[in-house]
Amino acid sequence: MNMPSKTISLEVDAYDRLKATRRAGESFSEVVRRITLPPAKATAADLLAEVKAGTFGRGVNWIAVKHAVAGRRRARELRSA
User: Fold this and answer.
1) Cα(46)–Cα(51) distance, rounded to whole angstroms?
2) 49: which DSSP letter?
3) Rounded to whole angstroms, how far apart are CA atoms 51 and 57?
4) Which of 6, 39, 40, 41 is the Cys-Cys partner for 46 at CB 3.0 to 4.6 Å?
5) For the whole prediction, is pTM greater than 0.70?
6) What is the mean pLDDT of the chain?
7) In terms of pLDDT, which residue wins out, 42 or 63?
8) What percent of the chain has pLDDT over 70?
């Protein structure tokens, strides 16, 4: 199944970092999905409705989220050092 695609422009250093993050056999789309957090809910009301319904967080790979957040913290620390 072919998914629709978008063409983006990256500065060379950003491309190099993305390429270095890529695992064997992994597409750039897969890299972006792996290293970014899931989309945020539209509103606080949406989150509250999920909490009340007991469905909040279902289907989220929380280990991947934890690793992404830790990676972002580490990157921030390195930039500020």
Assistant:
1) 9
2) H
3) 9
4) 41
5) no
6) 86
7) 63
8) 95
Token pair for 42: 């539209």
Contact criterion met (CB below 8 Å) for 47 and 41: yes
Contact assessment for residue 64 and residue 34, using Cβ atoms and an 8 Å cutoff: yes
CB burial class (10 A; 0-12, 13-18, 19+) of residue 62?
A: exposed
Q: Which residues of 2-37 are buried (b: 16+ CB within 10 A; e: fewer)?
A: eeeeeeeeeeeeeeeeeeeeeeeeeeeeebeeeeee
Reading the block at residue 8, the tokens are 């983006």
Q: How far, in whole angstroms, is CA 20 from its chain's centroid?
A: 16
Residue tagged 């056999």 (tokens) = 25
State the Rg of the chain over Cα: 16
